[in-house]
Amino acid sequence: MAKATKKQALGRGLSALLKETADVNSASDKNADKVVGSIVEIDLNLIEVNPYQPRTYFDEEALRELASSIKELGVIQPITVRKLAEDKFQLVSGERRFRASKLIGNTKVPAYIRIANDQEMLEMALVENIQRKNLDPIEVALSYQRLIDEIKLTQEELSTRVGKKRSTVTNYLRLLKLDPIIQTGMRDGFISMGHGRALINIDSELEQLNIYEKIVRDKLSVRQTEDLVRAYKNGDDAKPITKKKPLPVAISSSIKGFHDFFDAKVDVAVNDKGKGKISIPFDSIEDFNRIKKLLK
Length: 296
Description:
CATH architecture of the domain at 13-117: Alpha-Beta Complex
Strand order of the largest sheet: 1-5-3-4-2
Number of strands: 7
CATH superfamily of the domain at 13-117: Conserved hypothetical protein from pyrococcus furiosus pfu- 392566-001, ParB domain
Order of helices and strands: HEEHEEHEHHHHHHHHHEEH
Oligomer: single chain
Strand content: 5-15%
Radius of gyration: 24 Å
Largest sheet: 5 strands, mixed
């Protein structure tokens, strides 16, 4: 089944994220103590895929590139599996490495072994996937929602668990209020999360779709979309989309600092005389109170 030689256990960052305690290993197997906590090479045919995998799409070209890398250098980072009964294992994370290894005909893969019940398995899979950089915004939002619904976390607990600001979690979850067609467009890369956040402010799904079609057709920027949504809400559907006058360098170079500090898209407007205003948006009373504390 596996080589007896232990290697240094890697990837403890996920365990730290989940605040692992002694009772997290709640599944049981009489031979578990011989392998749990070790990195060993496991036969690929003894590993089953993760039924809780949040990722639904695996890019075939990217998989072939990874397979080519594994063929040359091997699997540099072990996958993580949980121990099932007897000589069976189930993927927790690393399905791309698992698939790529099978693609080139490898028979074994290095794996870090742990024990977890079904709920812990779901949580580990969701949190591990959320940490990845290449998830689309809807995949992230769906993973957040599953953690809330199935693990019974509050948004505050979720933000702590995944290492994100509370307002960031809220912004992702709000994307799920968009029409499914718009969500699909975001997943396929036709629009960005910024476009989606602007469209959320339109209550009518029909109008959401109308503006979405205009975004795609006219290749509108996020700022142009925000202007269009603002015009719609003001009842000025025919208002043309115009580019704003560039801000003075002294101001434009400082805006990112405002964005980072408030974790919000701060808007700055300046007239020809140098006078202007700073607008800080908020999504809820809770978010308003968060910003108020920052101002204090």
